[in-house]
């Protein structure tokens, strides 16, 4: 078993979370005009929301690593490709679900579409994008080439 | 470099050469080996099989270029040649009779002796002939072999050698050319193989072992010594065949003569007594036999029907030739005359049963042999099932996403180095698939030997799992093994020796995929070389992990 991927994945996702909450949280706290929500509460919810997203992504990545490392998938690469897409889709749904929760939660604040787009980009950076990168580069050998794009980089 | 000639005489000789070719394919053989056969029965099924196997070996070897490294050697490492100065002159079989003679009645003993003329002109001589030969023997067509009558064979061969300038025709011509080119004593190792209890072998071995023919041939003489180191294996009775009274009666009614199992012992006794009295030119001689007398199949007198199952004694005999070729015989004084006895601890035949040398130091070679044979088996099976399935299903996601394909071949798509290229596919189909398949069936037929009178494979033979191959028919002879349902194939149980339960899926996971990552010089090699090297290296690793053989050459049992 390649131990590296089990360590690298949480480290990368942890760093992503840290960067987002440090820079994104500060940026929104300083640049948005909140009417009924306390900034501290906003920052707290922001951190928790991204922590959940990142943790969910880590779960999806680990599921892929465990599944891809199992012997049973060796001659079921069609099934592996389907599984990858399902996990990727779930990751994407995670980001969409998170942004929907956010919009619902801060419905009264009229934070603007631009803010929502930036937030979706940040959520993407915490969910399906790292899922793609971590599976593209660190997949178990058996399923390495079922990840779209992997065949291009060899 | 020393040259090695393995000369098979008769049906047993052909089968020993077939075994030698498979051993060489598995990486256990000398650096070079020139082979040819002596048999009047040129339509003999055993001969055809041997010819085909040699041709395919040569084709496979040409494509591989010795790339598969084993510690104990390399697969297809031996340069096996058929005598002939040019490709079109290559002659595998010396048929004793000329083509013209074979067309007529000239190959009947009575015509060869001029019996009818003799009867008129020298009746007293014809009476001696009557005393020595029966009517059936005199009338028998000898182009189908000597049917267990060495007296006829010896007479025929001696007259063929004396009357014709045999050394001016292939395969002897190339042999003599090689002899003339050599400059030192014992530069050419010649090993004669034949059965002592049959017709052709029992007649041919003493004929060609006579000092004047090879050993002390004027062209071979170098002062007091000879350029030829002469070895031989006399194969004692080792098999039986299924009784077919109806067929035997028919042959008898047709006036045909043939070898009978019950006469093997008597024939052997007579032959051994002859060898004991006769001063032959052998430097080293091996007597190899087996009292188990496993059945090698049905009864046939000759021609195409004579296609017997292989027998483990043929492997032992091929190994004795390799033992002989590996000896450094230099001067007459130093030649060790030893009798080498192939014995085993009990009556079972396992991967550890094959004798590989004559000293205790040679025992490590037993592990090398075991490793070579088992890994060749795994290589053949995985290549024939999984790999050929992949080749047929190029566009399938299982292939397009496979690690080995993406690692080794994808970047060469649509070039000569693409394994799916038409040329490579053709080579695999025409050479590798049939060769690997023949290898498996050969080993399978040894593993399926039956005790005499029994219909089930003997449980004393512990080589391959029985009945894992589909029944061989003329339709599926060159086809790959069926792979539908491959996930259920238990590759770990292919060999009858305890190993991990391993399906083909597990095997690809544990051996094929990781090996594809570690192959050296991936981009420099040709597609076929890479493909075979991949499956070969993986099978070797499997063998080391599961079958008590070690990579470092110290192949003693782990436990």
Radius of gyration of chain B: 25 Å
Considering DSSP H and I runs of 4 or more, what fraction of the residues of chain A is helical?
over 70%
For the record, the CATH architecture of the largest domain in chain B stands as 3-Layer(aba) Sandwich
End-to-end separation of chain A? 21 Å
Shape of chain B: globular
Helix content of chain B: 40-55%
Task: Compute the number of helices of chain A.
Answer: 6
The count of β-strands of chain A is 0
As for the number of domains of chain A, it is 1
State the separation between the terminal residues of chain B, measured CA to CA. 40 Å
Largest sheet of chain B: 8 strands, parallel
What fraction strand of chain A?
under 5%
* Coarse structural class of chain A: mainly alpha
Work out the strand percent of chain B.
5-15%
Secondary-structure element sequence of chain A?
HHHHHH
Please count the helical segments of chain B. 19
Let me know the average pLDDT of chain B.
81
Description:
The complex is a heterodimer of chains A (154) and B (559). Chain A has 154 residues and is mostly helical. Chain A has six helices and no strands. Chain A is elongated and about 55 Å long. In chain A, helix 3 packs antiparallel against helix 4. The model of chain A has no long low-confidence stretch (mean pLDDT 91). By secondary structure, chain B is α/β, with parallel strands linked by helices. Chain B has two domains: 3-100 and 144-343, Rossmann fold, CATH 3.40.50.1440; 368-546, no CATH class. Chain B is built from 19 helices and 16 strands. The chains are: A mainly alpha (154), B alpha/beta (559).
């Amino acid at each position: 078993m390649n131990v590296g991927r089990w360590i690298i994945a949480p480290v990368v996702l942890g760093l992503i979370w840290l960067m987002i909450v440090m820079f994104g949280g500060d940026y929104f706290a300083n640049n948005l005009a909140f009417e009924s929500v306390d900034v501290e509460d906003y920052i707290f919810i922001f951190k928790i929301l991204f922590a959940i997203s990142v943790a969910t992504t880590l779960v999806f990545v680990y599921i892929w690593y465990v599944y891809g490392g199992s012997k049973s998938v060796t001659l079921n690469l069609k099934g592996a490709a389907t599984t990858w897409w399902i996990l990727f889709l779930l990751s994407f749904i995670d980001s969409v679900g998170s942004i929907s929760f956010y919009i619902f939660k801060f419905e009264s604040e009229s934070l603007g579409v631009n803010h929502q787009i930036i937030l979706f980009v940040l959520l993407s950076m915490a969910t399906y994008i790292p899922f793609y990168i971590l599976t593209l580069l660190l997949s178990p050998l058996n399923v390495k080439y079922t990840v779209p794009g992997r065949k291009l980089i060899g | 470099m020393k040259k090695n000639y393995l000369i098979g005489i008769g049906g047993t000789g052909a089968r020993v050469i077939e075994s030698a070719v498979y051993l060489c394919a598995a990486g256990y053989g000398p650096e070079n080996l020139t082979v040819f056969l002596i048999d009047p029965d040129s339509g003999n099924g055993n001969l055809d099989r041997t010819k085909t196997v040699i041709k395919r070996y040569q084709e496979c070897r040409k494509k591989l270029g010795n790339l598969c490294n084993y510690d104990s050697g390399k697969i297809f490492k031996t340069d096996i040649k058929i005598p002939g100065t040019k490709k079109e002159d290559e002659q595998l079989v010396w048929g004793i009779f000329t083509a013209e003679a074979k067309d007529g009645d000239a190959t009947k003993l009575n015509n060869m002796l001029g019996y009818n003329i003799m009867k008129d002109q020298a009746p007293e001589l014809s009476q001696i002939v009557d005393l020595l030969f029966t009517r059936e023997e005199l009338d028998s067509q000898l182009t189908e072999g000597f049917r267990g009558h060495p007296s006829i064979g010896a007479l025929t061969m001696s007259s063929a050698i004396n009357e014709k300038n045999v050394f001016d025709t292939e395969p002897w011509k190339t042999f003599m050319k090689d002899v003339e080119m050599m400059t030192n004593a014992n530069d050419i190792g010649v090993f004669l193989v034949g059965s002592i209890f049959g017709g052709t072998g029992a007649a041919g071995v003493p004929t060609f072992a006579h000092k004047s023919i090879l050993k002390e041939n004027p062209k071979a003489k170098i002062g007091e010594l000879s350029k030829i180191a002469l070895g031989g294996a006399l194969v004692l009775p080792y098999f039986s065949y299924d009784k077919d009274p109806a067929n035997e009666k028919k042959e008898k009614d047709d006036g045909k003569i043939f070898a009978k199992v019950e006469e093997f012992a008597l024939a052997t006794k007579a032959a051994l007594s002859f060898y004991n009295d006769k001063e032959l030119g052998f430097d080293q001689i091996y007597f190899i036999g087996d009292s188990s007398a496993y059945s090698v199949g049905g009864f046939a007198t000759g021609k195409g029907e004579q296609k017997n199952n292989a027998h483990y004694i043929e492997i032992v005999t091929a190994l004795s030739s390799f033992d002989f070729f590996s000896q450094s015989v230099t001067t007459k004084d130093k030649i060790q005359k030893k009798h080498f006895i192939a014995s085993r601890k009990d009556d079972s035949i396992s991967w550890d049963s094959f004798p590989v040398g004559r000293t205790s130091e040679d025992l490590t070679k037993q592990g090398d042999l075991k490793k070579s044979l088992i890994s060749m088996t795994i290589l053949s099976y995985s290549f024939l099932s999984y790999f050929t399935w992949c080749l047929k299903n190029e566009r399938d996601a299982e292939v397009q996403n496979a690690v080995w394909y993406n690692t080794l071949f994808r970047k060469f798509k649509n070039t000569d180095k693409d394994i799916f290229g038409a040329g490579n596919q053709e080579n695999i189909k025409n050479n590798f698939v049939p060769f690997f398949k023949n290898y498996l069936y050969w080993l399978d037929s040894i593993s399926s030997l039956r005790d005499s009178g029994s219909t089930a494979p003997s449980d004393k033979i512990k080589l391959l799992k029985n009945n894992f191959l589909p029944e061989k028919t003329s339709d599926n002879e060159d086809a790959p093994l069926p792979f539908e349902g491959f996930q259920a194939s238990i590759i770990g149980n292919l060999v009858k020796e305890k190993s991990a339960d391993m399906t083909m899926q597990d095997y690809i996971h544990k051996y094929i995929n990781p090996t594809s990552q570690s192959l050296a010089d991936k981009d420099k090699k040709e597609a076929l070389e890479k493909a075979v090297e991949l499956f070969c290296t993986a099978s070797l690793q499997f063998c080391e992990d599961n079958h008590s053989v070690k990579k470092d050459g110290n192949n003693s049992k782990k436990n």
